[in-house]
Write a structure and sequence with these properties.
Layout: H1 2-9, E1 27-30, E2 33-36, E3 42-43, E4 46-47, H2 59-81, E5 87-98, H3 106-121, E6 128-134, E7 143-151
Parallel strand pairs: 5-6
Antiparallel strand pairs: 1-2, 2-7, 3-4, 5-7
Length: 152
């Protein structure tokens, strides 16, 4: 349980794994890949960081939103796998950032999740990624992130 110990060392308590809000599954496995549905900055089933980057929110608040979305994804991974040590590597991370047309710091916002994955999983947390601007996201959340992870 190296990853569980690492979470403890970092003082990170995972939230309860979010439940789907519609007719989809949070995780779909194909071979050794887990495709994770998008997760946002939710606590106890409710969005907690909402609005647009460049208007109501700045890049630092966006970073916090991406980190919280990342925590929710790790909680989903734990729920799906039982043991986070089964994660071989993060393959791809895609972030949608609700932002104004003139906001261009989507990659800095996405660092909230990227930094978290590397803090927790080390080298296995490094990944290919994309950060995309969106005019609005469901429930007005600031960020939605999805991941593809290779597992043992």
């Amino acid at each position: 349980m190296k990853i569980e110990k690492r979470l403890e060392e970092l003082g990170i308590t995972l939230p309860d794994a979010p439940t789907p809000l519609a007719n989809y599954v949070p995780v779909r496995r194909s071979g050794n890949l887990l495709f994770m549905s998008g997760a946002g900055p939710f606590e106890n089933g409710k969005p907690v960081i909402t609005g647009k980057l460049g208007k109501e929110l700045d890049a630092e608040q966006g970073y916090a939103a991406a980190r919280l979305a990342g925590l929710n994804l790790i909680a989903q991974l734990k729920n799906a796998l039982g043991d986070l040590d089964r994660v071989k590597q993060f393959v791809k991370v895609l972030a949608f950032v609700a932002s104004t047309p003139d906001f261009t710091a989507q990659p800095a916002v996405m660092n909230g999740a990227s930094d978290l994955f590397v803090e927790v999983f080390g080298e296995a947390g490094k990944h290919a990624r994309s950060a995309v601007a969106a005019p609005v996201l469901p429930m007005d959340v600031a960020v939605e992130i999805e991941i593809i992870v290779e597992v043992e």
